[in-house]
Amino acid sequence: MSLEEYKGVFTFAQQVDHKLEGVAFELIGKGKELANDLGTEVTAVLLGSDIKDLADQLAEYGADHVIVVDDPELKDYRTEPYAQALAGVINEFKPEIFLVGATAIGRDLGPTVSARVATGLTADCTSLEIGNFPLNAPEDQQKKNQLLMTRPAFGGNTIATIACPDNRPQMATVRPGVMIKLEPKKGAKADIIEYKADLKKNNKYVEILDIVKEVKKTADIMEAKILVSGGRGVGSAENFKLLDDLAEAIGGTVSCSRAVVDNGWKPKDLQVGQTGKTVRPNVYFAIGISGAIQHIAGMEESDIIIAINKDETAPIFDVADYGIVGDLNKIVPALTDAIKAANAAK
Amino acid sequence: MKIVVCVKQVPDTKNGVVFNADGTLNRAAMDKVMNPDDKAGLEVALQLKEKYDAEITVVTMGIPDADAVLREAFAMGADKGVLITDRVLGGADTWATSSTIAAGIRNLDYDLIITGRQAIDGDTAQVGPQIGEHLGIPVISYAKSVEVEGNNIIVERQYDDRTHKLKAAMPALVTCLAEATTPRYMTPGGIFDAFEKEVTVWGRNDLKDLDDANVGLAGSPTKIAKASDKVRKGAGEKVTLDPTESVKYIMDKLNEKHVI
């Protein structure tokens, strides 16, 4: 393959039930940055059935072009028709970079498509930039304008930067909540390209017998501006009342560490960390959270981290902007009262 | 019915991670275990074996010591074991690993292939689906349960906010979630058998229909540019104050940052 034939940054615009996922916009935001560095443009790829009208939203978040593959076979996600459609788009339009959200869909579609088009895929990236590879080689031996993909491994204990110098597209999945979406421009329009995927039923098609949706009972912690997060140190499900009260007073949302979920104090939806969700709120209160590396991996990008813990050696203090060594049972209720008083004085 | 289960030997991160002076992982200093999602996959296979009298072949790729995970699988009830090991296969990324394992599986009879969703060292979740892609069979990832109905499998597939119940024609590949089931313990008789049983060892030359361009470090499209222990942002302030002063301290910071 001739690498020069491959141009442009493409992003997968994941929609489920006719609703675009947040990560679809985040990828466009990051894609714009990469495209600027490369002097190229961003194309969002939208797959589904009766979804053409969603293209305008992608334009408002910064997509220059939107490729729409609209086919009844793509109504609900199934690996094979989606992989055929996406591989078709890649073979037809030859992007140099293809980004996919590291969702339960993207982590299925990404590896299937990358194997089908015979290229590399880097999973769960937390940082993407354009640079030269190998990093420390003399300039005349470096390949220019490569996608450098950084990802954690070993549960966040190590970090690796990966390149895909000899195959195209350079593919990466990106965890939701890690990249930042652009401010939407109302009324912005993209160039819309309708692509007819030649979907062929084969042995790899699966049949959907039933779809059971989980009823969302909990808040979306990835959207919260302020998170009041509790760990094992909170002590019991009942004692989380202290955090609920603080969250209510400050206009935040309660989240938690893995230990809390394992103890059955809070549902898994609220878990922050490597096996939970990645969050980056304006303020993250870490209350009674010791700060296992897997937890820190999911919240260290928060703007301000305030930790309250009675153990002064707790690793959470290594990443906290403001650490208070003390008893959460005394500090948290008093803080709630102080915030209520400040709100009342406004 | 013939089931192939793919397992990986991984460093045990439960008791922390040991680094070399240069920041790379000191694998030799860490215990090694069967990857948890793979162990759940093996348990799912063992349950199918009990119901349908299936034969289970466990396949691993790794260094010669990875033989240990096959012995563990024997002790849990697996029937046969294959170790794919060869220096030229080392340093493989997910493309090269899946190409290699798929070539190994082509040497076997199979109706169903079960892998774990992902390994705790790489966390990529790519090798399972890519093995299926190379073999040209249906793949269902993130499985919560697997049942067999005639020539089909019925699988509950977990998504972020829903579960799909799917039907696929065999041969097929399924990747299992660790949450799907609790793996059984090794039995004393099983442990005894485990060291009697023969492990089949395959090197590069035992793998047919596999291009040299697709194996090992050289055959990996992705290359590591750099790897290191994670550098984290430094600690900020840490104070020890009485509760009243603590609250004042936090309120001052929240005001300073215009949070309230």
Can you describe this structure?
With 346 residues, chain A is α/β, with parallel strands linked by helices. Chain A has two domains: 3-194, HUPs (Rossmann fold), CATH 3.40.50.620; 226-345, TPP-binding domain (Rossmann fold, 3-Layer(aba) Sandwich), CATH 3.40.50. Chain A is built from eight helices and 18 strands. Chain A has helices at residues 22-38, 55-60, 79-93, 106-116, 241-250, 258-262, 293-296, 328-345, and strands spanning 9-13, 15-16, 19-20, 42-48, 65-70, 97-101, 121-125, 127-133, 143-153, 158-163, 170-174, 191-194, 207-213, 226-230, 253-256, 283-287, 304-309, 322-325. In chain A, the strands form four sheets. In chain A, strands 7-11-6-1-4-5-12 form a seven-stranded parallel sheet, with helices on both faces. A five-stranded parallel sheet of chain A has the order 15-14-16-17-18. In chain A, strands 8-9-10 form a three-stranded antiparallel sheet. Chain A is globular and about 65 Å long. Chain A starts with 8 loop residues before the first strand and ends with a helix. The model of chain A has no long low-confidence stretch (mean pLDDT 94). Chain B is α/β, with parallel strands linked by helices. Chain B has one domain (2-214): 3-Layer(aba) Sandwich (Rossmann fold). Helix content of chain B is 28%, strand content 28%. Chain B contains six helices and 13 strands. A nine-stranded mixed sheet of chain B has the order 9-8-7-10-6-1-4-5-11. Chain B has a two-stranded antiparallel sheet with strand order 2-3. In chain B, helix 2 crosses helix 5 (188-196) and helix 3 (94-106) crosses helix 4. The radius of gyration of chain B is 22 Å and the shape is globular.
